[in-house]
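U., I forgot to send this yesterday:
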Amino acid sequence: MKISRKIAQKLWIEAYGNKKLVKDFSGNYMYYDAYGNQNYTRTIKGQSIKCGWNIDHILAKSKGGQTVKSNLACTNISTNQAKADKNTFWINGTKYQVKKKDGEYINTRI
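Result:
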């Protein structure tokens, strides 16, 4: 499956419904209309915050992860860049790890 804008937006709607502004697993904001826009900012609580998002392969493709719905998550672009293809990583001072739970991979705070 190739991840197009249409597929990404469908994943968003399945995860967040019609909400336009949400937080990813690490607490970073994402704005629905900012798919793929790394520099898109919104003023939130008086601060200019980057809210662009894309799709994260929870278990990176380089580690054997597949491009299937159960291995994909909407993620702030900055979060996704910091995570890269690591299984253990730090975002905003918090340590996370990719773990398998009930047959699916998830990003877990540790």
